[in-house]
Write a structure and sequence with these properties.
By secondary structure, the protein is α+β, with helices and mostly antiparallel strands. The protein has 2 domains: 5-175, Probable tRNA modification gtpase trme, domain 1 (Gyrase A, domain 2), CATH 3.30.1360.120; 225-298, Elongation Factor Tu (Ef-tu), domain 3 (Beta Barrel), CATH 2.40.30. Helices cover 19% and strands 33% of the residues. The protein has 7 helices and 17 strands. It has helices at 22-27, 76-85, 108-111, 151-157, 165-175, 212-220, 268-277, and strands at 5-8, 12-18, 43-48, 54-63, 66-72, 93-96, 100-105, 123-126, 129-133, 142-147, 161-162, 226-232, 243-246, 249-258, 261-267, 281-283, 286-290. β16 (281-283) and β17 (286-290) form a beta hairpin. It is globular and about 55 Å long. The two termini are 30 Å apart.
C-alpha cells in the first residue's frame, strides 16, 4: 500500500429507505442501534433469521432524510425483498440507489486526505454523498458512497490514485475482517463467531430485534467455540469451503483468500492444540498458520 489509493467497490450496491418510520422500522429488525445513525455517524449492522443466523450485513448512512444501506450488490434484491416483507403499514419507502457508487480508501492515512475524522463510524458529507471511517476498525480506512457522476473525480482531486480491489482485500484479510457472504454462510453463520461484537456490529443495550435471543445467549453463556481468523499459507490458495483439519480431525473451514493470506472459521480448541503440539492446521495439503488479530477478545 502506498497510502495514496482509492478502490472502487463494484460488488456493492445501495438500498435507500425514506419515510417517517424508517428509523423505527430498521430498529426492530437489525443488530445495531439505528438511533446512532446520523449525517455524522455510520453504523455496521446485520439482519438475521428469526433463529439468529446471518442473512445480510451492511453499513447504514444517512443523507437528505434517507438511510443509505451499503450492501452486497449480488444480494441487494434479496435484502430488499426481505425488508419489504416486514414493511406492513409503516411509513417507509424502499428504493434502489442506482445513481450511487461506492469506494474505499483502505488506509487510515490516505483517508485523512478527505478530512474524514479518524474515529470509527465518524462521517462527513462528501461529493454529494457520505464519507466515513470504517465503523468496524479505523485501520480499514475510509469508505465513500456518492453519485457515480462525481465520486472518482472528487477522489482524484484529493490527490488519491485509483487502485485495484486486491489492495482493499489485502488490508481486510490481514485485519481479519469478513466480507459478507464471501466469508459468512447465509442462514448458518453466527454473528459472534465473525467478530460482530468486538467490531461494533451489535448493540447490547437496544431493544429487541429479529434473532436477538440466540445472539444474546451466545454471548452471555460463553458459547463461542469457533472464530473467523486470519491465516497465512504458502502455495496454492485453498478454495473457500475447504475443510481444515488437525491430525486428521475437523478443525474448521477455509473462507476467502488472496496472495498467501486468508480467513478461516476455526475451532478455538484445535487452534490451541495445534499451537501446543507444534502441528500444522491443514486445508487439503496446504498448511495454515492462524493468527488472532489484536481486536479479537479472548
Amino acid at each position: 500500500m502506498t497510502g495514496t489509493s482509492y478502490v472502487m467497490l463494484s460488488d456493492r450496491g445501495v438500498i435507500t429507505i425514506a419515510g417517517a418510520d424508517r428509523r423505527a422500522f430498521l430498529q426492530g429488525l437489525v443488530s445495531n442501534d439505528m438511533d446512532k445513525v446520523a449525517p455524522d455517524r455510520v453504523v455496521w449492522a446485520a439482519l438475521l433469521t428469526p433463529q439468529g443466523k446471518y442473512l445480510h450485513d451492511f453499513f447504514v448512512a444517512e443523507r437528505d432524510d434517507r438511510f443509505l444501506l451499503d450492501c452486497e450488490a449480488d444480494r441487494l434484491m434479496d435484502l430488499g425483498r426481505t425488508l419489504h416483507k416486514f414493511k406492513l403499514r409503516a411509513d417507509v419507502d424502499l428504493g434502489i440507489g442506482e445513481e450511487y457508487a461506492l469506494a474505499a480508501i483502505p488506509d487510515p492515512q490516505a483517508a485523512a486526505r478527505i478530512n474524514v475524522p479518524p474515529e470509527p463510524g465518524a462521517a462527513i458529507a462528501f461529493a454529494d454523498g457520505v464519507a466515513w471511517t470504517d465503523p468496524r476498525l479505523a485501520e480499514m480506512g475510509g469508505r465513500l458512497l456518492a453519485p457515480k457522476t462525481g465520486l472518482e473525480e472528487a477522489l482524484t482531486a484529493c490527490g488519491l490514485a485509483k487502485g485495484g480491489r486486491a489492495e482493499y482485500d489485502s488490508v481486510r484479510l490481514a485485519l481479519g475482517i469478513a466480507d459478507g457472504s464471501r466469508d459468512m454462510i447465509v442462514e448458518k453463520s453466527i454473528l459472534l463467531e465473525n467478530g460482530f461484537d468486538e467490531l461494533g456490529g451489535v448493540d447490547w443495550d437496544k431493544g429487541c430485534y429479529m434473532g436477538q435471543e440466540l445472539t444474546a445467549r451466545t454471548k452471555y453463556r460463553g458459547l463461542i467455540k469457533k472464530r473467523l481468523m486470519p491465516v497465512r499459507f504458502d502455495g496454492v490458495a485453498p478454495v473457500s469451503g475447504t475443510p481444515v483439519t488437525l491430525d486428521g480431525k475437523d478443525a474448521g473451514e477455509m473462507r476467502s483468500s488472496l496472495d498467501g493470506q486468508g480467513l478461516a472459521l476455526l475451532r478455538l480448541d484445535k487452534v490451541a492444540k495445534a499451537d501446543e503440539m507444534g502441528m500444522p492446521l491443514l486445508a487439503g495439503e496446504t498448511a495454515l498458520i492462524p493468527r488472532r488479530p489484536d481486536w479479537m477478545a479472548g
